[in-house]
Amino acid sequence: MAERNKYGLGRTIPSEIKREVRKRCGFGCVICGISIFDYEHFNPAFKDAKNHDPIGITLLCPQCNQKKARGMLSVETVTNANAAPKSLQQGFSNETFDFGVEPIEIIFAGVSFKNCQHLIVVGKIPILSVSTPEEKHAPYRLSGRFCDDAGAATLKIEDNVWSVGADNWDVECTGAKITIRKGLGDIVLTLKSIPPKKLVVERINMQFEGRFFRGGGDLLEISRDGKNWNSFKACSMENGHIGILIS
User: Fold this and answer.
1) Quick one: DSSP state of residue 20?
2) pLDDT by residue (tens digit) across 47-89?
């Protein structure tokens, strides 16, 4: 694939234009709403583009992008979908984590949880929970939700299907990593999936049920008031019903 077109335009799209396209499309493929996507020049096609105009760029998942490249999906259909993206219509985009038949390890900033049913519980409400397979050869199932530092929902997980609201300020999926921002440079969540049995919360800045959580690397901090913090550093919980209970 040529790195530059006949006008000398390179394939690297500036980050601010990517962010504008992501927001306009609701952070998902405009056809199907899947959260894993490519940036596609559709009007005009990349070979005829003189610049990276966000109006002529949309989001297509790899499958829909291949359909378009093979002539199975028309430019007219892509144009119509770009005008009314699936994710904006349904209010979210989604995708599925690939977990296997062995217990899931969740690394939540500075704490590792393995074979725990409920990782962190605030009052009676778990942030994340893991269920055993429903049948033989079926995967373990992860459910829960994340919020920003004001308590607004950012990402939800239900039986391994994760979804992000189209009302987020920005959601960026790069490889197996999901980054959610509340503003420019203001990251509230970074998740990295390592199939088939690990998920890493690389960065967190969250308020959940009146408690505050922040952390990254090998440190997790929890606070009742956002001022005084308790720290968990490089520790692990295994084979328990509840990993951390916050009353």
Assistant:
1) H
2) 999 999 999 999 999 999 999 999 999 999 999 999 999 999 9
Same domain, 123 and 212: yes
Q: What is the pLDDT of residue 1?
A: 60
Give me the DSSP letters along 40-101: EEBTTBGGG-SS--GGGEEEE-HHHHHHHHTTSS-HHHHHHHHHS-HHHHHTEEEEE----S
Domain count, the chain: 2
- Domain co-membership, 167 together with 227: yes
pLDDT of 2 reads 65
In a domain, 72, yes or no: yes
Residue 3 maps to a domain: no
Longest dimension (CA), the chain: 63
- Rounded CA-CA distance 244/242 in Å is 6
Query: pTM of the predicted model, to two decimals?
Result: 0.94
Mean pLDDT across the chain, nearest whole number?
A: 96
The single-letter DSSP state of residue 224 is S
Percent share of the chain, pLDDT over 70: 99
Residue 197 in this model has a pLDDT that exceeds 90: yes
Six token digits for residue 117: 């049913």
Q: Is 180 helix (H, G, I), strand (E, B) or coil?
A: strand
User: What Å distances lie between residue 154 and 108, 131, 167, CA to CA?
Assistant: 16, 22, 9
User: How far is it, in rounded angstroms, from Cα 88 to Cα 31?
Assistant: 11
Dist CA 80 CA 158 (whole Å): 30
Distance CA 8, CA 19 (A): 23
